[in-house]
Specification:
Largest sheet: 7 strands, mixed
Strand content: 15-25%
Order of helices and strands: EHEHEHEHEHEHHEEEHHHH
Shape: elongated
CATH superfamily of the largest domain: Vaccinia Virus protein VP39
Number of helices: 11
Helix content: 25-40%
CATH class of the largest domain: Alpha Beta
Distance between the termini: 54 Å
CATH topology of the largest domain: Rossmann fold
Structural class: alpha/beta
Number of domains: 2
């Protein structure tokens, strides 16, 4: 994602061919880069982690502001260039690794909570976000991601809309979601076929509504949205019956997309109580 230098003018990806299997699109718009960094508001003392630095466009400005950064890059061909480009920053470290399998707790160590930044390919964005949310606020203080616009719309969705689903419920249970601004296709080389969007995720130290069992909440939400056009009575059959839903002041004839986060927590708490009683 590096900014092009004069020497790169004839090669829009700096001599590196973007790889479709890695979902690579290199960010080239200087104004967009500056706006992203301004949204992150990096400051001295931050423990910054960048997932998928690419060719270093955002990396450069983050290092200028903080002087320290750990980068996680899957494409081994990009790693030597990053190390060369930022050789004068002794606290810049590149980890050639898959972020989905990376141990962020080990990277944090005994230091301050990590601030995670990344341009996430569509094919890994949802599982990686779920992985990062599992670490909690003690490990990760905030995350700024560039994602496909439709993914951000699902993350930030409200109940009663078509975008409200499993990703919305679980993300909003674990963190505050703020959609910031759209990044158009022409900001990249090569151009993607869709708009992207910047989102800020801030993990909650204390959830707004407390689930007694997070695994139960995740299971209930997954089951409820497994057939989103059906009613709760049908989708949760064998999990929580209609009478129990009515006792929780939730109409069993409602569809999952109308159920709020607080109501899902109520359902999952009752479900976990029933499991413990068996």
């Amino acid at each position: 994602m590096s900014k092009p230098t004069q020497g790169e003018a004839l090669s829009p990806t700096g001599g590196h061919r973007a790889r479709k299997r890695f979902g690579q699109n290199f960010l080239r718009d200087g104004n967009i880069i500056a706006r992203i960094v301004s949204s992150i508001r990096p400051k001295q003392g931050d423990r910054l982690v960048e997932i998928g630095p690419g060719q270093g466009a955002i990396t450069e400005q983050l290092l200028e502001a903080v002087g320290q950064l750990d980068a996680i890059e899957l494409d081994r061909d990009l790693v030597p260039g990053l190390r060369t480009q930022f050789f004068n920053y002794p606290d810049f470290h590149v980890h050639q690794a898959d972020a989905l399998n990376f141990d962020f707790n080990e990277l944090k160590g005994t230091g301050p909570a990590l601030r995670v930044v990344g341009n996430l390919p569509y094919n890994i964005s949802t599982p990686l976000i779920f992985k990062l949310l599992s670490f909690g606020a003690d490990t990760i203080s905030d995350m700024h991601f560039m994602l496909q616009k439709e993914v951000v719309e699902r993350l930030a969705a409200r109940p009663g809309t078509g975008d409200w689903g499993r990703l919305s419920v679980m993300a909003q249970y674990h963190c505050r979601v703020e959609s910031l601004f759209v990044v158009p296709p022409e900001a990249f080389v090569p151009r993607p076929k869709v708009d992207s969007m910047i989102v800020r995720l801030t993990p909650r130290r204390d959830p707004e509504f407390k689930a007694n069992d997070l695994d139960a909440l995740a299971a209930v939400v997954r089951q409820a949205f497994s057939q989103r056009r059906k009613t709760l009575r049908n989708t949760l059959k064998g999990w929580v019956d209609g009478e129990t839903l009515s006792a929780l002041d939730i109409d069993p004839a409602r569809r999952p997309e109308t159920v709020t986060l607080e109501e899902f927590v109520r359902i999952s708490n009752r479900y976990s109580e029933q499991q413990e009683a068996q």
